[in-house]
Amino acid sequence: MAVKTHNIYHGNDNVLELKGLVDNDGTYMNAAIVTAKILSLLGVEVVATGYTAQTLTYVAASNGNYRKDVDKGVTDNISEDKYQLEWTASEGGRDFRRLDFLVIGPRRT
Question: The pTM is what?
Answer without folding.
Answer: 0.84
